[in-house]
Amino acid sequence: MLVSRRAPKPTRAGTSLHRHHCVGADGYRQHVAKVGAKARSQHRCSECQHVSAKWVGRCPDCGSWGTVDEIAVLTPLSGSGSMAARTVAPSSPAVPISSIDPGSTRHFHTGVSELDRVLGGGLVPGSVTLLAGDPGVGKSTLLLEVVHRWAQSGRRALYLSGEESAGQIRLRAERTGCTHDEVFLAAESDLQTALGHIEQVKPTLIVVDSVQTMSTAEVDGVTGGVTQVRAVTTALTMAAKSTGVAIILVGHVTKDGAIAGPRSLEHLVDVVLHFEGDRNSALRMVRGVKNRFGAADEVGCFLLHDNGIEGVADPSGLFLDQRPQPVSGTSVTVTLDGKRPLIGEVQALIGSASAGNPRRAVSGIDSARAAMITAVLEKRAHLNVGQNDIYLSTVGGMRLTDPSSDLAVALAIASAYADIPMPTTVVAIGEVGLAGDLRRVTGMDRRLAEAARLGFDCAVVPPGVKDVPTGLTVMSADNISGALRVLKSIAGK
């Protein structure tokens, strides 16, 4: 029995395939290239890159407000296969890297040596620098000193303030002695008007205090919000690159110490600096976090006074307690803050525990590392210090986060427990392990050179140190027990 079968209806895929065979491969590719791609909209969070189909005020992934923006996504048409990319003729041809003049990125000194140290030699024309710090730490005072020194060298500077009036800045300038005719002031928070000031004054250095107070009418959002901060920073960066003027932006920080605003703010600028300091101390430190024109791990030290701010070229003396006779419970170490060696002093005090509950009070030292060193002294060196109150502190408000200060902390505790003072000309450098062993740390040659320069004549270090400066005696110890024996032999001389 014969059964008549109808030919199946061609599907869309079959039709497309049939068309492909009829027209030919080359003709089909030309057809797809002519049709192109269709665009569809997506909404992406600028903080966590979460993509959603519609706009929302708050990102459902990271919970940030006002960070979801609309983006256009090009998708190839169905069945198009591989679509040829369209090329655009470059406006300027690519050149060999050896033919580029390096003088275009030459540093110009600001006149503040400690800031130039962190910047890698000074400000580069067309660069954008972000200086962030806590309120009242001295950012405006430092930058007013910078524009004053800049103007003294025959260059023009423009100070744009969105937080203070011109009269307030003038009063600070008189108090700190930073008045100069080539320093122009403008209390302005509108971006377009600020760009007009730049075009009219034609400075070579611009200070914007601060970027969170600037706003533009071309984008939505509140002043200081994510959208406004990104738009203002982008516009100022384009102005710096097109005119060749150096711009310093002042940035706010959150309660956690991070730079306020979107994370992309740090990617837009060329240099990121953190201005740190304690309100109870006059010491201020500018720390480099990002630098496209130099090292990103330099530190500059300043002293903030009522009549201004000054750089400290040799800050090691600020962290030492000057006393005529040695006292038990003190030890000196050399730490590296970035690439800069700094002398620091650790002080320890041992007391009797009240009500059988030992107390630990730590200032300037990591409490977790202090507890670990105490446990190592009790277990490996057999010092019964765990049942006593232990107080640890640094001199001058210094923070010792480098593991190289472990040995100095251990020797300070042991000196306080045995009531044996260490000589004031001895430094201790090394990391203490849980097994009681001493480990070498990086930059030992720079640490020892700084100790020798400041007049120290003996250093207690882990074994393996070869490069020893002239006039410095190195005494090695394999573990914490050996370091205590070295301490006892030195103290007995």
TrEMBL record:
GO terms for biological process: recombinational repair. CDD domains: RadA_SMS_N. Keywords: ATP-binding, DNA damage, DNA repair, DNA-binding, Hydrolase, Metal-binding, Nucleotide-binding, Stress response, Zinc, Zinc-finger. Residues 104-253 form the RecA family profile domain. InterPro entries: AAA+_ATPase, DNA_repair_RadA, P-loop_NTPase, RecA_ATP-bd, Ribosomal_Su5_D2-typ_SF, Ribsml_uS5_D2-typ_fold_subgr, Rubredoxin_2. The middle region has homology to RecA with ATPase motifs including the RadA KNRFG motif, while the C-terminus is homologous to Lon protease. Plays a role in repairing double-strand DNA breaks, probably involving stabilizing or processing branched DNA or blocked replication forks. DNA-dependent ATPase involved in processing of recombination intermediates, plays a role in repairing DNA breaks. Stimulates the branch migration of RecA-mediated strand transfer reactions, allowing the 3' invading strand to extend heteroduplex DNA faster. Binds ssDNA in the presence of ADP but not other nucleotides, has ATPase activity that is stimulated by ssDNA and various branched DNA structures, but inhibited by SSB. Does not have RecA's homology-searching function. HAMAP family: RadA_bact (MF_01498). Belongs to the RecA family. RadA subfamily. This is DNA repair protein RadA. It comes from Mycolicibacterium hodleri. The lineage of its organism: Bacteria, Bacillati, Actinomycetota, Actinomycetes, Mycobacteriales. The gene is radA.
